[in-house]
Design a protein that fits this description.
With about 500 residues, this protein is mostly helical. Helix content is about 40%, strand content about 10%. It contains 17 helices and 10 strands. It has helices spanning about 10-20, 45-60, 60-65, 95-100, 110-130, 140-165, 185-200, 215-230, 240-255, 295, 320, 365, 390-405, 405-420, 430-445, 450-460, 495-500; strands at about 85, 280, 315, 340-345, 350-360, 385, 460, 470, 475, 480-485. The strands form 5 sheets. It has a two-stranded antiparallel sheet with strand order 1-3. The longest helix is centred in the N-terminal third of the chain and has 26 residues, at about 140-165. The relative contact order is 0.13.
């Protein structure tokens, strides 16, 4: 299989990841001079352990942050298929096939996400395999391993939800390894490994909150709550895990160290990265790596410092835009998730954009605002993975499934709705409260690569025309008027991987 079929994976890590510039945006990913390294001398010192871990962090950007051809990034894999946005560019046939649900195993987005995923897993496996034997502080050693286990679990959690049964590799692979041509492992076993990895991380002595961008205990517990919530739904349907999801989410909420920002504008400020509401994010920084997410949202007009013109590959679908409740602050122009006008050159004359655009992840420090000229240095906003708002909604949903809409569950969703300026009903049935929470997930977490996974685990899709929920199979995606089929619950295994690994099999109907 292409991603891990490397003659010497240890050599590949050292040459390709350690001796090159460490892609980083925080001090913990600064480059170390490794000019004298070779495969036999690496993983001997604490510096090697830190460098190996830094390589794992660096490859987090390769999964969804990578480039997938004209006007598209890897993360479009999880957004174009939701129907919440419209692709207003015809420059990328793969992106067009995603939007129209006509993609196949040659889809470049699936290929690059697969590549990034197994690259991270390979690097994490090297850390997990080699760091235990290094003579160094035992406390720091355990923390390094805890971070590596978390990152590996996160990679597998993405992959198992995208492809279902996948190769499960928990140690380095070379040409002589029995897993060189790995077969697919059942989803239940992959999930067991994910939980095991996260439980190790939970006991590894990490700080509860870490504003440097490193993995924290809050991140571990939050990801565990997401994993358990997913396991309770399709395809495992292990509903006993609702209780586990609620417990882990409550552990994050009750600690008291995290809270929602008061306004939506504060969420996507560079100065607020890794703070307060941001539990875990993929890191970006000047002179290291730029985040091209906003280019998909920007209009094809000069509204930024330096005149950058956007791709317009993610415009809000009209019915979804209109589905927000009356008075919902998330719909307020240039204050919530959308905007319909902006300033020429970033801080000049106000100009109409001809329709709503997505304001999430709009970097005002870079692009400018009505009162402040943008710095024009580039977009280096972090890539959000877990926000505290999601943890609140996980707790509300999972707790409701266990005990109905308790006061604690209502309070959790109320915090999210209070910020939006909405009133929260306090006397709903279990079924009505469930749908209330689902709608909040659709509206609060939109365009953050979460909605598609909700559609799959629930086998339900929010119908922004009716305000209700349709069955996944048969739901009409309003952005392209195409209907979802059973096969769309999984993406196709990349064709190139099937060629490179004869033991891989394809998902049904691809």
């Amino acid at each position: 299989m292409k991603i891990y079929k490397i003659k010497d994976l240890n050599r590949a890590l050292i040459i390709a990841l350690i001796t090159t510039t460490m892609l980083s945006c925080s001090d913990f990913l600064e480059e170390n001079n490794q000019s004298s390294l070779n495969p036999n001398s690496f993983y001997k010192t604490s510096v090697h352990a830190e460098s190996g871990l830094n390589a794992v962090y660096a490859t987090t950007r390769d999964i969804f942050g990578g480039f997938s051809g004209g006007n598209s990034s890897n993360w479009h894999l999880l957004e174009a298929v939701t129907g919440q946005s419209i692709n207003n560019s015809s420059g990328n046939p793969d992106l067009n096939s995603l939007s129209s649900l006509s993609y196949n195993s040659n889809l470049i987005h699936a290929r690059t996400v697969w590549a990034g995923t197994y690259k991270l897993i390979a690097n994490a496996n090297l850390v997990i395999e080699n760091v235990p034997d290094i003579f160094m502080s035992e406390d720091r050693k355990k923390q390094i391993l805890g971070e590596a286990y978390f990152l590996r679990a996160w990679a597998y959690f993405n992959a198992v939800r995208i492809w279902g049964d996948i190769p499960l590799l928990t140690s380095p692979v070379g040409t002589g390894s029995p897993d060189f041509y790995a077969e697919r492992t059942s989803q239940s076993i992959v999930y067991d490994q994910i939980v095991s990895d996260l439980k190790f991380s939970e006991g590894s002595g990490l700080a509860f909150i870490d504003q440097s961008g490193r993995v924290s205990i809050a991140a571990v517990k939050s990801l565990l709550s997401k994993v358990y919530l997913t396991m309770a739904g399709h395809p495992l349907n292990k509903t006993e895990h609702y209780a586990d999801a609620a417990e882990k989410a409550k552990g994050v909420i009750d600690n008291g160290g995290l809270s929602l920002f008061n306004t939506y504008g504060e969420i996507f400020l560079e100065s607020n990265e890794n703070k307060q509401e941001h539990i875990f994010s993929i890191q970006y920084a000047p002179n290291v790596s730029a985040n091209y997410e906003s280019l998909s949202f920007l209009p094809a007009k000069n509204i930024t410092k330096g005149g950058a013109v956007g791709w317009q590959t993610n415009l809000p679908e009209t019915n979804f835009y209109n589905s927000f409740e009356s008075g919902d602050k998330r719909k307020n122009n240039r204050q919530g998730w959308f905007y319909t006008d902006y300033f020429v050159g970033g801080n000049g004359e106000l100009t109409d954009l001809g329709g709503p655009h997505i304001f999430k992840a709009f970097n005002v420090a870079n692009f400018g605002s009505d009162t402040v000229e943008g710095n024009g240095q580039g977009d280096f906003l972090n890539f959000s993975v877990i926000r505290f708002a999601e943890v609140l909604l996980i707790y509300a949903e999972a707790s409701n499934e266990v005990s109905g809409p308790t006061s604690a569950a209502i309070e959790a969703v109320k915090k999210v709705r209070d910020r939006a300026g909405l009133t929260t009903p306090t006397s709903l049935s279990k079924d009505l409260f469930r749908e209330l929470v689902w709608k909040e997930r659709w509206h609060e977490l939109c365009f953050e690569r979460i909605t598609w996974f909700d559609m799959v685990r629930l086998k339900k899709v929010f119908n922004s025309k009716t305000g209700g929920f349709d069955n996944f199979v048969g739901h009409t995606v309003l952005s392209t008027n195409q209907s979802l089929k059973e096969k769309h619950l999984l993406f196709p295994i990349p064709a190139l991987e099937l060629v490179n690994n004869p033991n891989l099999t394809q998902n049904s109907e691809y």
